[in-house]
């Protein structure tokens, strides 16, 4: 390497201590039962931006319903989204299914075991690619996420801002130098496990750390100052009114979101962008937008839903309509007990408690 970050660093000692600790302390997680690349792939996609304890029951349900890559490839996307319901970041599920279909069509159902083909699949970024190649195929490929950058920023005392893309590239380069060629699977999983269990974001448990003797930040007493990460931009708050519209047959209107963008292809109760419309114009706006007459009732509640980049501030109203059919493909009239057949985001699932 051109810089001196790894100069005089005992790479083989670090590898040995980390792998020995991982083998002795790794958690009993369902995706570790075997090294099936499909299962590793599903688990890594689910684990993006989601905690392990949350993922476990979803992973088990998902693999029960789609035990093989072919089952997922040929499944109806609405069913896949329904199975994913509650995990959030639904584009992960759509990208996963699209990529799995490509594996079936282009690679005979065999997950590619090379960086070029695997990295070209939809939703497979550098981290997921490295995780699959190292864990499932035992190839010495770096898999660098926030956990790994936190651990290595402390071990190697790297004070660059990890939110910058060029810095992440640096970490990938260091990991490629550090990774064990004898057991890359255990090495990569060991760093991830260390970050999850010991080298935590706050109050790292340095006294329990198997690689404490190699940690430059610990030696200088600055482990809690690393990693350096600039603050994200403040989220934009958008106010909405959501309508729980019921007709005389006790059917509710639900709306399918666009095929693109946030929560694509999910279902929801109609949302009105209240800043653009104004409360007094909702009934007219709804008639113009969907061709359905509605009458606004009482406010039933409110909720706030936080995404990574925006916040929905939602007031929930009941409403009635004398219509029982839709001339707009985006909306549908459904009975209360049929709602379970549609994939709803968490925010709209929470609204169902206000329905009769």
Description:
This protein is an alpha+beta fold. It is built from 15 helices and 7 strands. It has a 4-stranded mixed sheet. Strands 3-2-7 form a 3-stranded antiparallel sheet, with no helix packed on it. A hairpin with a 3-residue loop joins strand 5 and strand 6 (310-320). Helix 1 (11-25) crosses helix 11, helix 2 (37-47) crosses helix 3 (52-65) and helix 8 (126-136) crosses helix 11. The longest helix is centred in the first third of the chain and has 17 residues, at 91-107.
**Poorly predicted parts:** none
Secondary-structure element order, N to C: HHHHHHHHHHHHEEEEHHEEEH
Question: pLDDT average, as an integer?
Answer: 95
User: What about the largest sheet?
Assistant: 4 strands, mixed
Order of strands, main sheet, comes to: 4-1-6-5
Task: Tell me what portion of residues adopts beta-strand conformation.
Answer: 5-15%
Give the overall shape, derived from the CA principal axes. Answer: elongated
Number of strands: 7
Counting helices, strands and paired strands, the structural category is alpha+beta
Radius of gyration based on Cα positions: 24 Å
Quick description:
The chain is of the alpha+beta class.
